[in-house]
Design a protein that fits this description.
The protein contains four helices and seven strands; from the N terminus they run ααβββαββββα. By secondary structure, it is of the alpha+beta class.
Length: about 180
């Protein structure tokens, strides 16, 4: 450090300002790289596929339950596999699950199958793996069909209307309710 003490004041100021400038530029570069990484992650998350498995109900005078696999993301995906925790008694439904493998699912597209299950099959677990150019994704869903028995339903049964009119009235009511 003796050499630094032997310098005149203008040289000392020049060295200190150069070190400060170097430090600030290193810190700025680190901050820019972190911001770039965060921006890239945000863009990837915003543009990735989000494939979801859920139960939907449709009312047509009675509640019919459907298993829906839908891509809510903005990018298409290839379904690598769908697994479930038990065998369904319905052969058609088992084939539906098997046939999803290697299927492409576009943004907003859904695959739907009637869900004919027994009360003891109320809790179902599904695992889905899908991939896109942005990466591979794996999701797990636990669906409980028992939840749907608690849906509040107000039926119209006006005596001056025919049975068909009452059913149509209830269907249109259910349709409007689904927009809520």
């Amino acid at each position: 450090m003796e050499w630094f003490n032997n310098l005149d004041i203008s040289n000392k100021i020049a060295i200190v300002s150069a070190l400060a400038t170097f430090s600030v530029s290193i810190i700025s570069t680190i901050i820019a790289l972190l911001a770039l990484r965060t921006t890239k992650k945000s863009i990837t998350e915003a543009n990735r596929p989000y494939v979801v498995i859920a139960i939907e109900t449709i009312e047509t005078g009675f509640y019919a339950k459907y298993l829906v696999i839908k891509n809510y993301g903005t990018t298409g995906a290839y379904i690598d596999f769908v697994k479930t925790n038990h065998e369904f008694k319905n052969t058609y439904f088992n084939n539906f699950i098997k046939d999803l493998t290697t299927r492409f699912i576009a943004p907003g597209q859904s695959f739907v199958s009637y869900l004919d299950i027994e009360p003891e099959e109320a809790q179902m677990e599904f695992e889905i793996q899908y991939s896109s150019p942005l990466g591979k994704y794996q999701e797990r869903f636990t669906l409980n069909e028992k939840l749907y028995k608690h849906q509040v339903r107000k039926s119209v049964n006006q005596s001056q209307l025919s049975e068909l009119s009452n059913v149509l009235n209830n269907v249109f009511h259910a349709q409007d309710k689904s927009k809520i």
